[in-house]
Amino acid sequence: MDSEAILSSMNPQRDAGTQPSSFALDALGAAAVKAPARPSVSVVVCSHDRLGYVTACMDSLSRQTVGPDGFEIILVDSGSPPAVAAEMRRLAEQAGNAKLVRVDASGVSRARNEGARAASGDYVAYIDDDAAAAHDWIEQIQRVAAEHQGQPAVIGGKVLPEWEAPLPKWWPSTLRGVLSIIEYEGAGEYRSGEVPDTLEPYGVNMILRRDAMFEVGGFEEALGRLGLVLQSDEEVQLAWRLQDAGYSARYDSRIEVRHSIQARRFNPEWLLARLYWQGASTVRTRRLLGRPELVRREFLRRLVVEAITLPVTWLVPSTSTRLMALRWRHAYASGFTREATACGAGKRKTIFGRAEHRPC
What global pTM score does this model have? Predict the structure, then answer.
């Protein structure tokens, strides 16, 4: 099993039968209207108890080539402690073009959906709180949308790393993507051959046409980060649902952010947990897209990988480059097989925490 096969398997295949989530239609988003030549943009920043990061993110938005009258900011406070919540309110007030939305429930997908509900722009531009937008970020979003007559429902952009510490030598070169890094130069439609097949939109720099997002149901709240649980693929699943509904989903490297890569992630435990939950998220995504046969087709192969790599998990040193290549494959396969066999199991404890498993 090579790394390319693992990475490619994270991409659900296209299918016309999609499953919308429970995301309700908003009155402002119910009517699908053609985007203007220069579409309006609402930036959504979701944050939980990370004042330093979100302050830097808001600072980058204050330095855009498009003035504050040219876009709005929706700052979503996802259950931060009172002192941090008060500072976030102050940040929104100081910006002048921002409003604060408070979400008591945790979960990044829920926060992103609430941000979209509060937005008024033709496009909703998502940026993570630990990212900084290039000075022409808004300008490039509007330019790319206008070049394609407001048709793209998804626009993904470049994500360059801002390292808080050097990347360890044992880190597999094929797994820079799990740190939400996208360095590809170019533009084109996802899943069309115009850009690499493994290229996917990441929520750290993802722009959605608001009316189309409402039409297909928004982010699936069963996916995405939830506390310390490293679920993922919520943005990929939404992008593919939009494509399956007939919308355009494009990548353009002119739309650029810099993403702070936190030093606390540079340990084997974090990487293996991240790959475990990637395996589980792949299963959930395929089922939510109405493609359970893809899970069944791959299950035996993942079970074999899990079995033959199990002895490696007992060996030291844990940061050996060769051993890590086997250990991350074991973690991914374990997440895949455990999620695939968890139908109707309710809550089930795993080596990486407690996860809720839905019936197939």
Answer: 0.80
